[in-house]
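User: Run a structure prediction on this.
Assistant: Running it now.
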Amino acid sequence: MGKKGVLLVNLGTPDSPSTADVRRYLREFLMDPRVIDINPLARTLLVKGIIVPTRGPKSAKLYQKIWDDKTGSPLLHYSKLQQQLLQQRLGDQYIVELAMRYQNPNIESALERLKAALVDDIRVIPMFPQYASASTGSVYEKVMGLVGQWPTAPTISFINSFHDNKLMIEAFVDNALKYRPETYDHILFSFHGLPQRQMIKSDHTHSHCLKVADCCQTLTEANKFCYSAQSYHTARLIAEKLNIPKEKYTICFQSRLGSDPWVQPYTSEVVAKLAKEGKKRLLVFCPAFVADCLETVYEVTTEYGDEFKALGGEHVQLVESLNDSPLWIDALEQLVRQTNNNPASLA
């Protein structure tokens, strides 16, 4: 019996915090038509003419703040740890490769290594708990575009989402317990944002998204492919495990870009509102990320932390991402070994 391949794919990170490398990363990332899903000419003008030239130097300065001299990018560091720990857990029957959708290590090289190892099949795990066309969908497209050019190919299977995976939920809960969530004034579940137009596109019924009151609040057949609805479901499962009452937590979305409406409420506005209400201590989960990165260690801890304090708050505490949590490695092993998409989910 031959070996089995596993391909873990996270979003990506610059090769260094230099302006040139950050611009290269932003260019590849934002030129993906699934990420900025507008007219190709308009996308090119926007990305190459405006965003990359102006945002590159600013983003480089932010990456410099989180870059470690020894381990580099936190996202790449923890992704490598996850690969290594999963390989140890699975044993010699499996070959686990790591890739980034944008920049390095790249998907093409990782797939070539699996091909050279003559694996019988490849399980692709996009490292995004909630499905979105701009993340998981882009990984699908890239992998199948490359494998589709091979003369022969092994069986390829994908994990579509794992927003309700029991072990992942327990890992987030375990990370939070040391902070004693009950001692905080309010708790935020802050997910990465996406444009509303992408949520509308995911509505296969064409009659639910932004047309039904509270369309994302409950996961149903109509919105089961919706990133926002899956995000709400993840947050609710974590809150239930921690016995957090509904009135004590808010689900919100960060990192918006441009002037078009994105999924709401926006984290920055929620933080400001809570400060004005007199809340002093906030605990923040970021359950769209399985490894700490710029959006967690800087955007939440520093940017939102500073905004909160400027308005009278005292402390914003980030619950770390899953990183090298043993429970998270358990979850990854489960995702590799399972025979269908989500057998170990919470109802």
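The longest strand covers residues 4-12.
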